[in-house]
Sequence to fold (214 residues):
Amino acid sequence: MVKTVPITEPERFAGHWYKHRHSGLKTLNQFVDHIPLNRTGLAFTNIPATGMLLHISQYNSVNDTDCVYRLFLGLFGHNGQCPGKALSSVDSDIPVTNNINMLYVDYDRVTIAYICRSTNYKTGFCDHPVFHVLTRARPDKMPAKELKAIDDLVDQTLAPYCLTAADVDPQMYSDARPFCKPADLGDTCAFRAMTALTEDINNSTQYQYKEIKP
Fold:
């Protein structure tokens, strides 16, 4: 069973983060912006949650100059889970369901999260686990001592899953390639994504779940 921790202060989770590690993916200069949103007027307003999040991830592919934008719209659950819908600028226009499980949260330093891409319903285990490590500071600019302390924390957090930081791919950073420009929610790609995500969640029965209140 995944042990999760809740996001009790969504406003402190907001702002700029850098992707330090991501299992199964190599990116260049990846950063993430978390934007808390007001749920007023949305169909899922009354679903128990501490808040709603727009996650915008942007990075350069290692072998291409194009920027990749990934958007995730989800709810901060009291149980440490963040169910929502994701859309990418390089994938289908159809939003896919994701459920982010927060494993560790330090609003000023690092967060560690887990997503199951493929659940084995026969065994109850995940066939395709994906772990994410975000840091407030840019990883390649951190002192070696701080970077080691964060990876030690990742080791401790992933120990129940028989994994270590070495099992989660480090992401690349380089000043030789410019960072992607922050996404403007008014531009074509982001606007389509935001519209599709909102409509999809509003029309989804996925979110009619029973949640344990704190």
Observations:
- Residues 144-158 form the longest helix (15 residues).
- The chain has three helices and eight strands.
- Residues 56 and 71 are 5 Å apart (CA to CA).
- The radius of gyration is 17 Å.
